[in-house]
Specification:
The protein is of the alpha+beta class. It has three domains: 87-319, Beta-galactosidase, Chain A, domain 5; 333-635, TIM Barrel (Alpha-Beta Barrel), CATH 3.20.20.70; 642-739, Golgi alpha-mannosidase II (Immunoglobulin-like, Sandwich). The chain contains twelve helices and 38 strands. Strands 6, 7, 8, 9, 11, 12, 14, 15, 19 and 20 form a ten-stranded antiparallel sheet that branches. Strand 3 (19-25) and strand 4 form a beta hairpin. Bound molecules: (2R,3S,4R,5S)-2-(hydroxymethyl)piperidine-3,4,5-triol (DGJ). (2R,3S,4R,5S)-2-(hydroxymethyl)piperidine-3,4,5-triol is lined by residues 337, 367-368, 412, 479, 481, 527, 529-530, 546, 549.
């Protein structure tokens, strides 16, 4: 069993083939952190790792003892004010105004398998022998509250999933004001902190800086994980790169307000925390009530950032995403949004669908504008019934016609929102999030429904079920186009207003869960004005997400590269759109647009009918090509070979699990003239296999062994680059490797 308890030393050692995680019940019965890193041999006692040191200006726990200070210890789940001055993982406000706690060891349980987290997304196992779980029960005697720290170590992924659960066994109400999902005290500070920052249209751009004393953090206070920051951070050694070196990845399986931070103390201990953002958070813990934090996933590697990412990709593809579509290739879609916006008729849609079908496209998606009085962004949200002026035969009629063409049918919803000009709002003005006596601000002329109230979730559920049950719908795009301000719920008393942000996201999860259970074969794609809620929480419900509203191929190189540090290609909605691009007016070749979008859940988002016939024929070939290689693009092992954050040339590689096939996307952002003779080394292939290398049109490039490709590399340009018409700005080329 890969979790050992050493009774004498009271140490727990969690390990698999690659990593070890060691924690200890300290002398004061609190839990200390001893080690997280490469697998080490087990031993009975690691007392030497507990720092019993005298330091000036330090507070000590025991009378007549100048050695035991929590301020000098590496802890598992620290509290403030018990000799530790760093930021805490937990804070509980008590009736007398105190927030001091002291959670001490009571007992533990080690078992095969992994528990589910009630109402929350989380990684899972299919067989109990895939993972082992440790639950450590701690108790605060003064307030009579239990704290259970839950750790699961997977056998086949270099990952540990963890969370915390609080249960009030006492007689008083308490306010939980900080309840992080994880805390990790690392013994030094020689790390670069990597975060994935952005905004609408330029999500998840890699930003890196060396750790410095004090606190560095990213987070969201918007009610969604947001475009601006992502609930995923990396700590890596300065010399670690994509191919080698030590790194930790921390991912929160949550879609609401979050905080990820690292605090470097004066003794160079790095405290990493990840969880619900304590800002604007409190949870009333009534007697006998429990609070379960979201799950955090920690991955450790000594083999570089590609290996770190691949661990997240495989774990999230195989044991976070669920259901019918988990392992299935994703249908190639056409979405009408950028083809028509709100300006469509049924005839126009059917004509687009017919053309798409002729080109081999498999799924037709009807985006915004099919319901209520929704002919512009100012009206209709919340009225989830068809607009018969536009679609006389209803959704069921349109869906039947699309199915008759031999295509799947998909539909857009924005379940969490309403416009003031809607029947929903006219009948239930109290259903929106707003603060009494305060102005309610809008975003895109819409208001956020109060999903912290179960009756509001029920109301939306019933409307959606009616539509989805009426006509056959194979795919749902679940959009969410504004964030929460003036957060308040009319349904909760004053001492529970700090719960609303979290209750809101629990309501979102509840609606997803109920719809998935009712329609298990629908493929859900999450969306939030593009990639404003691209997080591990969403992947539990929706196996793919619209990566960004910016579908310009060159911008997508950055967005998809940034996203790939945590999330698999199968989860990234990636579409070919029109050129000049609607977001930046940049002109790119149709080939480049497809070559970038192949590395994702592929589709088209443009008016196929208004393209020249030559483009349509090219699209037909692209669709056929994607069908042939989709398994590798979406489920192969993905490598970043060169990234747009520091290179004019970007290269991505996807390799089949048996290593017999691989595809490299090779992109040159700006052309260069009289350039060097370039080679690209290729990791991940089988050294002893010989590969036939070709372009997607079948033209042969040559034959090379995996060993040569890894060490010498593949020649990727010739000396004439810049002097022929083939290589221009925004150039791309695919290299296909087939083992003989
Ligand atoms: C924002 C999404 O990101 C777009 O793809 C589109 O669905 C619009 N909303 C529709 O309003």
């Amino acid at each position: 069993m890969p979790i050992k308890f050493h009774k004498q030393s009271r140490e727990f050692h969690l390990y698999n083939d690659q990593l070890s995680y060691i924690i200890k019940v300290l002398k004061n019965d609190q839990l200390g952190q001893l080690y997280f890193g490469k697998r080490v041999v087990d031993r009975d006692n690691h007392d030497y790792l507990v720092e019993n040191t005298y330091r000036p200006v330090t507070s000590y726990v025991y009378d007549n003892d100048y050695s035991f200070s929590l301020g000098n210890m590496k802890q598992e789940y620290p509290a403030y004010g018990t000799t530790d001055y760093r930021l805490p993982a937990v804070e509980i406000k008590q009736p007398n105004g105190s927030s001091i706690t002291n959670f001490t060891y009571v007992s533990h349980r080690i078992y095969d398998g992994k528990p589910q987290l009630n109402g929350l997304p989380a990684t899972y196992v299919e067989n109990d022998n895939e993972a082992t779980t440790l639950e450590v029960l701690l108790h605060d005697d003064v307030i009579n509250v239990d704290l259970t720290l839950i750790y699961t170590i997977f056998n086949n992924y270099d990952a540990i999933a963890r969370s915390a659960k609080f249960t009030n066994q006492g007689e008083h109400d308490y306010q939980l004001t900080t309840a992080m999902s994880m805390n990790l005290d690392l013994p030094d500070d020689d790390y670069d902190w990597l975060q994935f920052s952005g905004a609408w249209g330029r999500e998840r751009q890699l930003k890196a800086a060396h750790l410095r004393p004090g606190i560095q953090s990213v987070g969201s206070t918007r009610g969604a994980s947001s475009h601006m920051e992502n609930p995923f951070v990396i700590l890596k050694r300065p010399h670690t790169d994509d191919f080698q070196g030590e790194a930790y990845g921390f991912s929160l399986v949550y879609s609401g307000n979050f905080l990820a931070q690292a605090e470097v103390d004066p003794y160079k201990v790095t405290r990493v925390q990840l969880g619900i953002n304590p800002f604007h958070f409190s949870w009333k813990l009534a007697p006998q009530a429990s609070f379960q934090t979201p799950e955090a996933v920690m991955v450790y590697t000594t083999n570089g950032l590609n290996d770190l990412s691949q661990n997240f990709h495989h774990l999230y593809q195989q044991r976070l995403t669920r259901g019918y579509w988990r392992d299935r290739q994703r249908p190639i879609l056409v979405n009408n949004w950028e083809a028509t916006y709100f300006d469509f008729t049924e005839d126009k849609l059917l004509s687009l669908a017919k053309t798409a079908k002729d080109l081999g496209i498999e799924l037709f998606v009807l985006d915004d504008g099919w319901f209520g009085k929704r002919t512009s962004e100012t009206a209709g949200l919340g009225d989830w019934w068809v607009n018969r002026d536009r679609l006389p035969d209803g959704i069921s009629g349109l869906s039947a016609k699309i199915h008759q063409l031999g295509m799947m049918f998909g539909l857009w919803f924005e379940p969490e929102m309403t416009n003031k000009d809607s029947d929903l709002y006219r009948n239930h003005p109290d259903y929106i999030i707003k603060t009494p006596d305060r102005h309610a601000s809008h975003g895109r002329k819409q208001y956020v429904l109060d999903f912290s109230r179960p009756e509001v979730v029920d109301y939306v559920y019933n409307m959606m079920v009616k539509v989805l049950a009426d006509g056959k719908v194979d795919y749902v795009k679940w959009d969410m186009n504004r964030n929460i301000t003036e957060c308040f719920s009319a349904a909760y008393p004053a001492d529970q207003q700090g719960e609303i942000f979290h209750r809101y996201i629990l309501g979102v999860y509840d609606l997803y869960e109920r719809l998935i259970n009712k329609f298990p074969q629908i493929l859900f794609e999450s969306c939030a004005s593009g990639g404003g809620r691209f997080d591990a929480g969403m992947l539990y419900y929706a196996p793919q997400a619209w990566t960004s509203d910016d579908s310009d191929a060159i911008e997508r190189l950055k967005i998809q590269t940034g996203t790939s540090y945590c999330y698999p290609t199968s989860s990234m909605g990636a579409h070919v759109s029109v050129s000049p691009n609607e977001q930046l007016q940049r002109q790119t070749p149709l080939k480049t647009r497809a070559d970038v979008a192949y590395f994702g859940a592929f589709g088209y988002e443009l008016d196929l009918n208004s393209l020249p016939e030559t483009d349509r024929q090219q699209i037909k070939q692209q669709v056929a090509f994607m069908k042939k290689y989709r398994q590798i693009f979406q489920f192969g092992t993905f490598y970043r070979l060169k990234t747009p954050f520091d290179s004019n040339i970007v290269a991505w590689l996807a390799v089949s699990p048996d290593k017999k096939q691989a595809i490299m996307g090779y992109f040159k952002i700006l052309n260069d003239v009289n350039a060097e003779y370039r080679r690209q080394q290729l990791p991940g292939l089988a050294a002893d296999l010989t590969y036939q290398v070709s372009e997607e049109d079948g033209s042969q490039i040559g034959e090379f062994t995996g060993n040569e490709l890894a060490n010498i590399g593949l020649v990727t340009t010739d000396a004439s680059a810049g002097e022929n018409k083939e290589t221009t700005d925004f150039y791309s080329k695919l290299f296909i490797f087939n083992a003989k």
